[in-house]
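Example record

One chain of 150 residues, shown exactly as stored in the release files.
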Amino acid sequence: MNTLKFILNTKTYGFEIGQEFASVNQTFSDLSPERTVHSDLDRTYLKFGSYGFEMLFESGILDSVFLYLDSNNGSTPLFSGQFNLLDDDFFQTLSADIFYKSMCDRGFTACKTSYPFAVDFLSSNLRIRLETRSDQTIILIDDGALIREF
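Predicted structure tokens for this chain:
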């Protein structure tokens, strides 16, 4: 697995897609995330409101991470940190070209399936998606299992 790292307020937090909830929750506990449980779907969300990201756990396992980068509604806090798989320049510009270069430099390959609002890059065990819609820009991080089926 790839260890993903966020740097928030000069502290580095390491985690992995597929990691158990208790371990991830402990790693990020000093950030006091908001926890939401949807027991009927066996999903738990950790929302890091002031840091602009959230984590989705399915059946107690980290499934996806969402970084909120831009929002037209102004009510969504934006990601305020660094991410080890993207150059700092990307967060300053939200440039698709810098995203593409960052992914290629780290050994990711562009997915063959294209979308009008998103670009996906894959490694052997991760997908990093840049999604730009009219109302927001996000980064999605997951294992890419669904996209690999096509």
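Notes: The CA atoms of residues 16 and 129 lie 16 Å apart.
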